[in-house]
């Protein structure tokens, strides 16, 4: 057996996995990772990237550049032009990121599922009762970005971003082991609520990027806003920023999660189900025919 195989088997043990990634000073580990990953020394860069690629399924073949100045630079890599074809159907919302689909489906009242048999209230996630009620009976998809994936996220449709809310929180791991053990985990972690209106349909779609351990920040390039775990919640930011479908909105400093919320009138695309892999630009939801 290879070392990689043995380590992978060990990490599959729930107790060990949970202890190694959660029973540590999560915020301290996150800050240290943020600092360490930005070191621009060739030896540290090369060793760090090699270790990362050893333990994670990392594909750099579609990266825009082939040389990186640091581990951080490699984490937040851009893609080559055309490497993520967009579904151009105007009635389709595309996935904002590369991800593994977690829970998804209809919103039961204002309750979403974290894992089978364990839910959480939309109001607790958004900290906005009116917005939570708006999505009652709609649908949602939870998209989990693993450590080796492409970490930037994009507009799911031609849209207008109207409000950004940063909600301070913890830095629990968001892998399946932690989701089974920590109730209402998404409602406890650092997150950003991005409210948009679809151009041409006048429908409101909300994206909720959720940070996790080792995520040293969520970057929203269009506002030059840095959502950093060291900073506390801020009042909602009103804005009017126009995006084209597939245009970059921001990035994670590491793997994490995006929850996509749609009101009544949308269905999940046929390719979307729990456990499925999806790439940015592929169909995610579809506007129902009227």
Could you characterize the architecture of this molecule?
- The strands form four sheets. An eight-stranded antiparallel β-sheet has the order 12-7-8-9-14-5-2-16, with no helix packed on it.
- Mean pLDDT is 85; it is low at 6-13.
- The protein has 290 residues and is of the alpha+beta class.
- The longest helix is centred in the first third of the chain and has 14 residues, at 42-55.
- It contains eight helices and 17 strands.
- The protein has helices at residues 3-11, 14-22, 26-36, 42-55, 71-75, 122-126, 129-134, 176-181; strands spanning 92-94, 99-106, 111-115, 118-121, 139-144, 152-154, 159-167, 191-198, 204-210, 218-220, 225-227, 237-243, 248-252, 257-262, 266-268, 277-278, 283-287.
Question: Which descriptors would you attach to this protein?
Answer:
single chain, 290 residues, alpha+beta, 2 domains, 4-stranded antiparallel sheet, 8 helices, 17 strands, 30% strand, globular
């Amino acid at each position: 057996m290879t070392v990689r195989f043995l380590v992978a088997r060990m990490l599959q043990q729930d107790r060990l996995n949970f202890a190694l990634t959660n029973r540590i000073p999560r915020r301290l580990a996150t800050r240290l990772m943020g600092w360490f990953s930005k070191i621009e020394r060739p030896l540290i860069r090369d060793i760090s990237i090699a270790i990362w690629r050893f333990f994670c399924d990392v594909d750099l073949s579609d990266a825009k550049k082939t040389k990186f100045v640091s581990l951080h630079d490699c984490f937040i890599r851009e893609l080559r032009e055309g490497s993520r074809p967009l579904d151009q159907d105007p009635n389709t919302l595309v996935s904002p990121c590369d991800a593994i689909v977690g829970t998804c489906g209809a919103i039961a009242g204002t309750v979403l599922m974290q894992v089978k048999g364990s839910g959480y209230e939309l109001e607790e996630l958004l900290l906005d009762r009116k917005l939570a009620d708006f999505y009652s009976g709609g649908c949602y998809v939870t998209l989990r970005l693993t450590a080796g994936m492409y970490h930037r996220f994009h507009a799911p449709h031609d849209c207008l971003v109207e409000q950004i809310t940063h909600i301070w929180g913890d830095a629990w791991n968001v892998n399946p082991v932690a989701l089974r053990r920590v109730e209402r985990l998404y409602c406890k972690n650092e997150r950003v609520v991005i409210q948009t209106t679809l151009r041409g349909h006048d429908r409101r779609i909300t994206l909720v990027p959720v940070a996790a351990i080792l995520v040293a920040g969520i970057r929203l390039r269009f506002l030059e806003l840095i959502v950093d775990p060291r900073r506390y919640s801020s009042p909602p930011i009103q804005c009017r920023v126009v995006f084209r479908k597939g245009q970059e909105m921001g990035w994670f400093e590491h793997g994490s999660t995006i929850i996509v919320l749609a009101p009544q009138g949308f269905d999940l695309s046929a390719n979307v189900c729990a456990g499925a892999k999806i790439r940015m630009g592929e169909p995610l939801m579809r506007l129902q025919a009227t």
